[in-house]
UniProtKB/TrEMBL annotation:
Gene3D superfamilies: 1.10.150.130, Intergrase catalytic core. The keyword Ribonucleoprotein does not apply. Keywords: DNA integration, DNA recombination, DNA-binding. This is Tyrosine recombinase XerC. It comes from the Bacteria. Residues 98-272 form the Tyr recombinase domain. Residues 1-81 form the Core-binding (CB) domain.
Length: 282
């Protein structure tokens, strides 16, 4: 490991970035060096700008990928090399505004029924029942379950924030039955060596269950989190409460679910509430 790479890892650790962000940002700097055939700390702003023009015009990367590379490289120059500023005349491609193919309650139930593996079924149930991200469900420990208060503690979720989410009586009963059957150690869903499962394990389980259930909507396991959010809104949950349950830092991230779900804003005055929330948060 080079000294420069070590410095970047240390800087990301100080900022509390997730392992996934570490991988993405390091990959961005590595790709920059590969393109320029020079060490990143020897480059000039014009070299970096040329690289981003290459990503957009020649490689045709998706807008989300270009932005991820941009943030990773910008972090490297500002926080690792201590450049005073990173002013690049790069027009980042706009993110396409697409509404995902949202799963209905019936489709979620069909997917869960089609998942025969007890452990995978429990994990997918927790993803939907608590609106968890993939990495969050993999990181659940036995001690995170508060059966008395029917709460699940999500430790250091995205953005390095802890939060508590409610467990329904049905979901809590399923978790207790799972614990009695498997007697897990520290991790609720551990691999053979007692360590956390790899994300691909649950992703494959979801894809296979969706195929067996005959659900053909596009989207991966994150669709269960989207379904949780839209179903909660449709049931009348306030947007601010949903923001806290999902662990969103910005209300704008949560408001997209309101716009995706017409029924959630059909109530009297709902459009006024949305406008007030957006105005209050800039």
């Amino acid at each position: 490991m080079t000294a420069l790479r070590q410095r970047m890892i240390a800087a990301m650790q100080m900022h509390g970035f997730s392992p996934r962000t570490h991988q993405s940002y390091l990959a961005a700097v590595r790709d920059l060096a590969k393109f320029t055939h020079r060490a990143p700390d020897t480059l000039m702003p014009d070299d970096v700008q040329c690289y981003f023009e290459h990503l957009v015009r020649e490689r045709g990367l998706a807008p989300a990928s270009v932005r991820l590379f941009y943030h990773g490289i910008r972090f490297f120059y500002l926080q690792v090399l201590n450049w005073p500023a990173v002013d690049l005349a790069v027009t980042l491609p706009k993110r396409p505004q697409r509404i995902p193919e949202l799963l209905t309650r019936e489709e979620v139930a069909a997917i869960l029924r089609a998942c025969a593996d007890v452990r995978h079924h429990m994990m997918l149930s927790l993803c939907y029942g608590c609106g968890l991200r993939l990495n969050e469900v993999l990181a659940v420990r036995v001690g995170d379950i508060d059966g008395e208060r029917r709460l699940l503690r999500i430790e250091q979720g995205k953005g390095a924030k802890d939060r508590m989410v409610p467990l329904s009586p049905t979901l809590l009963a399923q978790l207790r039955a799972y614990w009695r059957a498997y007697r897990p150690g520290a991790w609720l869903f551990a691999g053979r060596a007692g360590t956390r499962l790899a994300p691909t394990t649950l992703q494959k389980a979801f894809t296979q269950a969706k195929q067996r259930a005959g659900v053909h909507k596009v989207g991966g396991i994150h669709g269960l989190r989207h379904a949780y959010a839209t179903h909660q809104l449709a049931a009348g949950l306030p947007v601010q409460r949903l923001q806290r349950l999902l662990g969103h830092q910005s209300i704008h991230t949560t408001l997209r679910y309101v716009h995706w779900l017409p029924s959630a804003r059909e109530g009297e005055g709902m459009l006024d509430v949305i406008a007030q929330l957006e105005a209050a948060h800039g």
